[in-house]
Amino acid sequence: MGKLKMMLLMLAASVLLLAACGKDDEKSSGSAGETGDSGYDLVKKGKFTYAASGVYKPFSFEEDGELTGFDIEIGKALAEKMDLEPNPVTNPFETILQGLVGKKFDAIIGSMAYTKERAKQADFTEPYYYSGGMIFVAKDNDEVKGPDDLKGKKIGVVAQSTYEAPAKELSDNIQYYSSDVVALKDLTVKGRLDAVITADIVGFEAIDNGFEVKEVGKPMWVEQPSIAVNKDNPELTKALDKALQELIDDGTYKEISEKWFGRDLLDIDLEGVELLE
């Protein structure tokens, strides 16, 4: 009888131990930021959290209290391809890379161009569109006909953008902005700015929306906006590249691009073009 009691006690202890381990496993698998079946880490389990400035129309902006735009829709389509819930958030462009490194979000889909300098802090997917860096001036400005005419002129650029360094090479009089749209608007205010350097797409969109500005010459270079991902998350970078290619192959990308711009932003002849790195 004593042996039977001992066996029953040992069996009960084993059951309790297994139950406790099961609870620990459930708690661990439910923790945000831990690697799940997908093979990559997410800030929020089951959600793809991606950041944009939210002030870069038509790429990312708020309308009726909702984030929308080309970048936002591309992010949603990518999330669907990866069987994740899209979770777009905003972060000022000046600190968006720091936010990614600090794991505030999973990726940046915010028209951030790949550069070798940025690649030291984050991994990048293949480009999800191409755009040119272009000079814009007020419509009645006939003095600025090219980059050489900007020496000593007041140039508006978004801080920490790829347009900052070229602007500094052309002039030591730089006005910083958090939004290209605001900078372009200031071009129409007499005496406020002499020029703005920004993406050709953004400038042309402003013109289509009635801004009294015009482009100067041709794009000075072509840049490669790509999706930035934390370096600790290489599997997510691979998954995004795969999902992006699927969007291109099944026509979803073209549909989104034509909705916002009337053309495919990846359909560009890059032969002989200087790519910004």
UniProtKB/TrEMBL annotation:
Which residues belong to the signal peptide in this entry? 1-19
Record-linked Gene3D superfamilies: Periplasmic binding protein-like II
Q: Which SUPFAM superfamilies match?
A: Periplasmic binding protein-like II
The chain positions of domain Ionotropic glutamate receptor C-terminal read 47-263
Task: Offer one Pfam family short name for this entry.
Answer: SBP_bac_3
Per UniProt, the keywords (alphabetical) are: Signal
In terms of InterPro entries, this protein maps to:
Iontro_rcpt_C, SBP_3_CS, Solute-binding_3/MltF_N
The record places domain Solute-binding protein family 3/N-terminal at 47-264
Q: Which PROSITE patterns match?
A: PROKAR_LIPOPROTEIN (PS51257), SBP_BACTERIAL_3 (PS01039)
Q: Where, subcellularly, is it found?
A: Cell envelope
Record family assignment: Belongs to the bacterial solute-binding protein 3 family.
Q: What is the protein's given name?
A: Transporter substrate-binding domain-containing protein
